[in-house]
Amino acid sequence: MINASGLRIILHLTIFTIITQPAQNEVIATLRTIVLHDSNVGEWRLYNRCSHGFVQLFLNNVNAMGKSESECLTRFLVQKTEWDDSFVLKQVHSKRYLCLNSKMGLISKSNLSYRCRFKEHLRKSGYSTFESRWRRGYFIGFDTEGQPLCSRNSSQCFQFIKLASSANKGPNRDCPSAYRRRAHRFAVPQINEIESASAFDVLKQTFMQKVLL
User: Fold this and answer.
1) Most buried of the four, 26, 160, 165, 181, by CB within 10 Å?
2) 33-47, 55-69, 114-128: which range is least confident on average?
3) What is the pTM of this model?
4) Which range marks the domain in which residue 25 is found?
5) Which of 95, 65, 67 minimizes the C-alpha distance to 79?
6) How many domains does the chain fold into?
7) Three-state SS string across 55-66, please?
8) Count of other CB atoms within 10 angstroms of residue 145
9) CA-angle at 170, arms to 35 and 97, nearest 5°
10) What does UniProt give as the signal peptide span (predicted)?
11) Is residue 169 pLDDT above 70, yes or no?
């Protein structure tokens, strides 16, 4: 005799078995992310070989055109787990994660998911490559204009110089407040903030695009 609790378990198992294998992998990966405990292990700034710039996150856009002095946009907190030696990159000031979307595009997200997890591979040349843990065998990179790429490629466009530092510096108080607000993608710095920001040109272009939409 099966009680109600037993019937519910059987029903859940039946539903799970009829889900396609890729969907099952997605469910399992998501559950792993929920139960994982990430530890802050340091900060990275990533310099791309193709774009000759640093990976930066600004107003919900990701590119690799950051300058060496643009710490407000290029500092990422590294959070690792011992489960599968993967990590996530969380921008120090905006608190947003570097992730992949369903079309394998590199984006920023406020909520963590398994699509935000990567694994580092250190090459003999000393450069680092970063493989998606969501889609094994796919690496993130940037073209010569700093636009995101994701492919089964390991050319120099997918290679980075990693500048590491300790994780106890905290947000830079000299950064415009718009970089630190939770809703930063809708926030526009004040004039005096803009004049002191190295990302003025990026801000101007992005703001005009939003106005003209």
Assistant:
1) 160
2) 33-47
3) 0.67
4) 4-35
5) 95
6) 2
7) EEEECCEEEEEE
8) 11
9) 45
10) 1-25
11) no
